[in-house]
Structure to design on (92 residues):
């Protein structure tokens, strides 16, 4: 495996399950960027599903096809997902 691109990353503080930023990766240009989100973003678009829907809405048009190289893929976890600081899940 060959590393094509990398960036320096400092983990952000997690408050209420959110870091107020997202990682953007352009597979075509191999660009990687960390995007800071406005503080009210998490209140308007709650959780991973809300983030994903907003990002897809903004990143596509009516003409975007499912198999188009311009289409976007969003992987979003909600604030209840496991993080390194979370306790281990309890099996019932």
């Amino acid at each position: 495996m060959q590393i094509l691109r990398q960036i320096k990353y400092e983990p952000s503080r997690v408050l209420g399950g959110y870091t107020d930023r997202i990682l953007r990766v352009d597979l075509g240009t191999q660009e990687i960027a960390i995007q800071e989100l406005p503080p009210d973003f998490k209140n308007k678009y709650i959780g991973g599903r809300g983030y994903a829907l907003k990002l897809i809405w903004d990143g596509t048009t009516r003409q975007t096809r499912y198999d188009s190289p311009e289409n976007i893929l969003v992987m979003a976890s909600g604030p209840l997902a496991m993080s390194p600081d979370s306790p281990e899940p309890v099996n019932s």
Observations:
- Residues 12 and 19 are 6 Å apart (CA to CA).
- The chain is about 20% helix and 15% strand.
- The first strand starts at residue 21 and ends at 26.
- The helical segments are 41-44, 47-59.
